[in-house]
Amino acid sequence: MSRKSSSSRGKSHGRKKGYNWAFIIAGAVLVSSYMIVVLFNGFGQTGWRESLEELKTSFLGAFQSVSETFGRVGQQLGSGSTSEDLVLDPPVGQQVRVHFIDVGQGESILIEGGDESVLVDAGENNQGETVLGYLANVGIDQLTMAVGTHPHSDHIGGMDTVMEGLTVGKLLMPDLPDDIIPTTKTYLSVLDVAEQTDTEMVYAYPGDSWEICGGTLKVLGPTEDYDDLNDESLVMRFDYGETSFLLTGDQEADAEEDLLSSGAKVTADLLGVGHHGSSTSTSQAFLDAVSPSVAVISCGEGNDYGHPHLETVERLEAAGVEIYRTDLQGSIVVSSDGHKLTVSTEKAG
To answer: What is residue 175's predicted lDDT score, i.e. its pLDDT?
Structure first.
């Protein structure tokens, strides 16, 4: 896939240089040990030198380990940061990539980092092969986890094909109220193939989280039971270093309001815009709370629903959000080094 346009978004994070607490602590322990040896051996004895050399060797090795582990923590303590601000950097040179795959009027998102990968939705029934081809092109031959945000065909339609085409460690789904569990061929096929392929089925709930792809994937919603499958969408936040991605499925304004009322942490650098940019999602209050710098809308060119709706686009533009759309730019890849986002698109648009 060619990368015809790119841009970078991120927040600068200035830090004051703090005291090297690891050095100070290790030095104090070494001096104290020296005084103990002197007291027991006397100033005029030679035995203390050998003892001190052993102590120096031991403590210098310990110092190196302590310094590597706590050096940056000491800097942040020196600058007055709280424990909630202590974010460890990803390993040098490591990145995570979040792909918004062009599956027409539907949604499919791939998170990949290190040797792990998560597929969130797989588009319509006729898009399973498209998703498998995309995964093969980026070198994915198995999935650590897959997520079906909710049982509408434009989100889970291709998931059965994906599970038949490669190994999936587990499949996350929302635990639906009994009275709205669908009996559609699409939904039943996903359940059947999960059983046939021994894919572990997991119901996901708010508060569930997984350390995966070098970051943390956490379920935020739905926080209530609804009579609409769109509002039952799993809402997930993926944190990688100091960057964050909020994926909302087809959640609409009433469920957005409940999510905000729950106190969930929804702020994110990137927003996967709800319900393909429909005016029934991405309310002003929700957009203000998320405060993204980048938004990605998954929708099909010339779709029958008119997605994305003008009202949603205007809200995003008024908030100064940089908008990307799969109907205009094809598949979109957002890379993070833990500090800033870099966006690449399949097509200029």
So the answer is: 97
